[in-house]
Every structure is written in structure tokens, then in C-alpha cells.
Specification:
Elements lengths: L5 H15 L49 E2 L5 E6 L3 H4 L1 H14 L3 E6 L5 H7 L8 E6 L1 H14 L6 E6 L5 H6 L4 H10 L1 E14 L8 E6 L2 E5 H10 L7 H13 L3 E7 L2 E13 L21 E7 L3 H12 L10 E6 L1 E5 L5 E4 L2 E21 L4
Parallel strand pairs: 2-3, 2-4, 4-5, 5-15
Antiparallel strand pairs: 1-6, 6-7, 6-15, 8-10, 8-14, 9-10, 9-13, 10-11, 11-12, 13-15, 14-15
Helix pairs in contact: 1-10, 3-7, 4-5, 8-9
Length: 383
């Protein structure tokens, strides 16, 4: 099934709401049934001050950072890397606005514009940075991912400073950092704070199944997904005209397709093998269209988080998705396990698609290693 009309989508949502609401208050722990012996899942504390929705209270979210922020470095030169196609092709206009504001603040700005997928990575890798230079990105999560990957490939040996000026459709990292406008992002560069964040080094097959081309290494700041999540983004990318809502529609379409995959998942040396629905691997707390995918994630704790959606029926998936939309309550679903890790690998009987920071770019097998406090990023000054 490739297409759904708005009427069908509405019917799916309505069916899920009618059929799968529950008042069961027993979803306080996460089951390990039907999974090959693995690490003990993390348990979340429920916030009793919140209303019960989908049978559970809202989970208590982790602090976004463990360490305190530092003052932003005084920098004169800013390399402004612009994705003109970000969002609804608004990147160029936002880039021009950011450049004018930065120059008005006394900064020297060197602007670069990407012309094709992967170009930002090439531009970033070729930059010649001087002490206290800053690399600013106009775009979304995928654009920032390309730029960080390019700089990590450059192997400068220094912890480099980045800034994000949101212009994408998802903007998960910007959301988590509290950046919602060009003015706010520029202010964070000029007089805000800086904070170290972890990255994940991801080695995988380059290209989606059927178009594999050797191996590649990317550096993820946001999320890595396998299974239903990738199915949904592949479908969503065919509906870019819909804007952020395309992610929700893509998920619903993927749920109805109900593809299941067999995988061998290894977390910090402990192996689990089973049929799974979805792996949500997160550094940020939100992903996609700012969905609360990982309530336990912290950007500088030296770990990545993974939500494992075990083998599920359509009914289970619809219920879990409904709980996720309700402020991250999916972590209390009995078919969802939540873990933290420093190393991870995914092996599958046949190549399966991988999404890195919102972009469908690779295939299994995949291996990951967390790089603690690998780069710094600008964020608004704390009150």
C-alpha cells in the first residue's frame, strides 16, 4: 500500500483512538518477554502531577545537560554554511537574514551554499579554520549532521564550536536547545552560551538496499533509526509538500504496512536476537517533527539511548504511537524496552535501511560508538 487519502488517514487515527485507549495503570515497568536475554531495561519514573493519558502519566524527563554551560567564545569569523533547500526552500532567505544580523554585530561572515546532497559535508571538510572560528549551519538536523561529519572527517584534533540556525522541517536539535528563530540563534552565537555534546560514530553500508556502494562513516548528533521509523521517513520524503505533518502520515502508512524485520542487536557487548518493529536510537530527546522519542536522553552524558519496539501487531504499534505522541508515554508500553549504551551493532539477514539524523542514507550492517563531548554547540544564555 503506497498511498492513503486524508479520509483514510483520519479513519486510521479515529480507529486507534476508539479501539486502543486504556485506563490500565499497570504500565509502570517495561517487560523483557520474548526477547533473547539482554541487558535489563531502564525504568522511568511517572510524574503523578500530570493527567493520565493512554493509560499512563507523563514520564519524568531527564535533564538535557549534566554539566553547566560555558560562555560562548569571542569569535570574529563565522563560516556560515547554508542549505538553501532546507524547509520549504527557505534556507537561502534565512541565511541572508542571519548573515546581515551577524555582520551588524561586528562579525566577519563567510557564506557557503550547498548545491546537492552531501555538498555541505564536502564544504565543511575543506574549511580552513583558525583559532576561535565558528561554524554556523542554516538548515535542519540533516544539514547539521553533514557539516559535523565533514569537520570530524577533517580530523583537526580540536573540539570545534558549531551553531545551528533552524531552517529545516523537523529541527529536533534546535528544539531541544531552545532555538526557535533566526534572531534567537544569532543571539546565541553573539552572546549566548556553549555546551559540549556527544556524537555517535556510525559505520554502515553506504546507500539504501538495492543501491549499496561500499561503506561509509557518519557522525550523528540527533538520531539513528531502523525498522518502521525508516519506512515512515522514506514514505514521508515523498510527501515533502505536506510540511512537518508528513512525518505523522508516514508513520501511519508504515504502521498499516506492518513490515517486521529480524535483527541481531548488540549493546555494549550483550547480544539480543529477535523480530523487532523499530529501533529508536537517540542523542536528543526529540526527533522527526519534534516528537518526544527519548525522554531519558541527555546530550553530554557519554551515552546514546535506544527505544526498542519489539514485535508488535498493528494494534500494539498504534497504541505505542499514540502514547508517544502524548508526551513520551510510550516508554511505559509493555512492548517497549529502553536502554543506554556506549557501543551498538545491528546485523540483519538482508540489508535493511538506516536513517541518520533524518536522512535515509545507509543500510545494515551497522556499528556505533559514542564519542563523549566531541564538539561544542551554541545555545541561548540561561536566565
Amino acid at each position: 500500500m503506497n498511498e492513503f487519502s486524508p479520509v483514510v488517514i483520519y479513519a486510521i487515527i479515529s480507529f486507534g483512538k476508539r479501539r486502543f485507549q486504556t485506563t490500565d495503570c499497570s504500565l509502570q515497568t517495561m517487560s523483557t518477554n520474548d526477547v533473547t536475554a539482554g541487558p535489563t531495561p531502564l525504568e522511568f519514573e511517572a510524574d503523578p502531577s500530570t493527567k493520565m493519558k493512554k493509560g499512563a502519566h507523563k514520564p519524568v524527563f531527564a535533564q538535557l545537560f549534566k554539566a553547566k554551560p560555558k560562555k560562548v567564545k569571542v569569535t570574529k569569523r563565522i563560516h556560515l554554511l547554508v542549505n538553501p533547500y532546507a524547509g520549504s526552500r527557505s534556507g537561502r532567505k534565512i541565511g541572508e537574514q542571519a548573515k546581515a544580523l551577524l555582520e551588524a554585530a561586528g562579525k566577519t561572515v563567510e557564506a557557503y551554499h550547498s548545491a546537492y546532497a552531501g555538498h555541505l559535508m564536502e564544504i565543511a571538510q575543506g574549511l580552513e579554520l583558525k583559532a576561535n572560528d565558528l561554524v554556523a549551519v542554516v538548515g535542519g538536523d540533516g544539514s547539521l549532521s553533514e557539516v559535523i561529519t565533514g569537520r570530524m572527517r577533517a580530523e583537526s584534533g580540536k573540539k570545534e564550536l558549531f551553531a545551528l540556525i533552524p531552517a529545516g522541517t523537523g529541527n529536533s536539535m534546535a528544539h531541544d536547545l531552545g532555538l526557535s528563530s533566526v534572531e534567537q540563534a544569532v543571539d546565541a552565537i553573539v552572546s549566548g552560551a556553549r555546551h559540549s555534546i556527544d556524537l555517535a560514530r556510525v559505520e554502515m553500508v553506504n546507500g539504501l538496499p538495492g543501491s549499496e556502494n561500499g561503506t561509509t562513516v557518519r557522525f550523528s548528533h540527533n538520531l539513528v533509526t531502523w525498522g518502521l521509523g525508516v519506512d515512515s521517513t522514506i514514505k514521508a520524503e515523498k510527501m515533502r509538500w505536506m510540511g512537518p505533518v508528513r512525518y505523522d502520515v508516514g508513520i501511519l502508512m508504515a504502521i498499516m504496512a506492518n513490515n517486521r524485520r529480524h535483527a541481531t542487536l548488540t549493546l555494549d557487548g550483550v547480544t539480543m536476537e529477535d523480530d523487532y518493529t523499530l529501533f529508536l536510537i537517540q542523542n536528543t530527546q526529540t526527533g522527526g517533527s519534534r516528537l518526544p522519542l527519548a525522554p531519558g536522553a541527555t546530550l553530554d552524558d557519554g551515552f546514546m539511548d535506544i527505544g526498542i519496539l519489539k514485535k508488535m501487531t498493528r494494534r500494539d504499534v498504534l497504541k505505542a504511537f499514540g502514547m508517544l505522541k502524548k508526551e513520551g508515554r510510550h516508554v511505559f508500553h509493555p512492548r517497549v524496552d529502553y536502554h543506554r549504551f556506549k557501543t551498538l551493532s545491528i546485523d540483519t539477514p538482508a540489508p535493511a535501511a538506516i536513517n541518520i539524523d533524518g536522512e535515509n542514507i545507509g543500510s545494515t550492517p551497522l556499528s556505533m560508538e559514542v564519542l563523549p563531548n566531541a564538539v561544542e554547540i551554541c545555545l541561548p544564555a540561561s536566565e
